[in-house]
Amino acid sequence: MSAFDTDRRTGDGVHVARVPIVGAWVTLMALTLLGWWLGRYHGLGTGRWLTAVILIVTFIKVFLVGYVFMDLRHTPRPILLAFASGCFVVCMVLIALANIL
């Protein structure tokens, strides 16, 4: 069942799937502003820590998009675990590469 199905309604006619989508959208906007602020004003200084924090914020956004907008919240646990593990591994590899170079 997709987040855009219209057959799931509460008694007052509110679409059930809108709450996670709107919450995810607000969270994505907040994380985007946080990433912009960190990159623009260097809130943590420069160098390795700043790069690591921005990459972590970015991959939180990647996971959130996959979980909410690609409906991974409705998939079996092994698929969700594989996606989350992939996000974590790629993020850590990019952080390691950023610290080496």
UniProtKB/TrEMBL annotation:
Keywords: Cell membrane, Membrane, Transmembrane, Transmembrane helix
TM regions (residue ranges): 16-37, 49-70, 79-100
Compartments, record wording: Cell membrane
InterPro entries cross-referenced by the UniProt entry: Cyt_c_oxidase_su4_prok (IPR005171)
Protein origin, superkingdom: Bacteria
Keyword Cell membrane: yes
Pfam families: COX4_pro (PF03626)
Its membrane topology: Multi-pass membrane protein
UniProt keyword Transmembrane, yes or no: yes
Protein name: Cytochrome C oxidase subunit IV
Species this chain originates from: Lentzea roselyniae
